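Lecture 7 notes: from sequence to structure.

We start with a single chain of 454 residues. Read the sequence below before looking at the structure.
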Amino acid sequence: MTAILIIDDEPGIRNVLKDVLADEGYRIFLAEDGIKGLGVLEREMVDLVILDVWLPNMGGMDVLKKIKEEYQDLEVIIISGHANINLAVKAVKMGAFDFLEKPLSLDKTITVVRNALKIEDLKQENRNLKNSLVMEERMIGNSPGIIKIRELIDQSAKSSSRIMILGENGSGKELVAKEIHRKSDRAKGPFVEVNCAAIPETLIESELFGHEKGAFTNAVATRKGKFELAHKGTLFLDEIADMSLSTQAKVLRAVQEQKFERIGGENTLSVDIRFITATNKNIEEEIKAGRFREDLYFRLNVIPIFLPPLRERIDDMEELVDYFMKKFKKASLPEPRSFDPGAMEFLKKYDWPGNIRELKNFIERINIMSDEEIISLGTVEKYLFNKEVLEKDTVAGEYDSMKLNDAKDYFEKEFILRKLKENDYNISKTAQVLGIYPSNLHGKVKKFGIKVKR
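Now the structure, written as tokens:
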């Protein structure tokens, strides 16, 4: 239910607005001064604030400034019995949605409230569109494995049950999560993603639960965490098995109760979230090894979805290749190019350790690097970086004239570059695949002058 906070020191105004807006179906919070109003914002999820200018203890304009510093997307309607043009202009410049003069016209107030909430809805839709307007967000293929995944998505999307997606790196777990959200009753709400492997252990709790101003060094303002941002929507916890045991314990409580506290805060916040998680690890082995909590696993794994790797869905290869060839077609060409039969057969027999992500990167690379009208087997072998080609073309050729240290550096650079591309240039994921610390990988990227795409 949409929540509105009314901050006004006059009981009559508060109660009239409460009755009128409650009749419109809104949940109402009341505060008689600015300090108490800010306290409500710390404890509750609020969608709109109606704020009086003249307040005891802390003036309305100071409250407005504080709200815009700490809750930038929250719309505020200013009301005042001592209105003037200069004050109205100042309020709007500070970020107020509108300025209403007392005595209030209830019809006009309801209209302004509806308009302000529409703006908030549009902001959320815009954020969702930015997350979804990419071509990859289509499930390509009609192999038996993909048909089964589509059926599971359709069966589970409308419920609020927690889902765990299991599959190798690059197999499309994020795509499945977004498809579930898109088909759910929460589709108009936010889809918030957290890559648990990409966030340092010292920061992940702040990232998930937010923090209060002054909670730690550099906490210069109150910051909402991903749990708050996902309110009324879906929270996708990717690479959940990479989360530390101490963080898992806190996530378990938040998942069970849908309640948490910001770091440095004393107030408990309640949220309404649908949880989807994913991992590329064997989660049962992680539990046996003591690296993942069994109780959290049972909480999250209500509906498991096993995503097949690309090598087990070769029937989809031609459709996937056609799709990516259209996506990465050179602007100068009237139509996307194709592969000759020998090249396509090679693609079908290749193991694809990086799955769909590796195929996408390969197709993008070949569209940039090759000018062949029909792409040949030789061109595929040249640009696919498979083990046999790497050994045949580089060890016997380019490495022959190099000294040992130069050859080692050359191989290391090419290998790191390959892994970066397979993992969409995500430093943390690539470091994990390589078995090194992210700081070490940063050093090697700098040493070899590798450009990391953002």
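The chain has three domains: 3-130, 144-308, 313-448. Keep this in mind for problem set 3.
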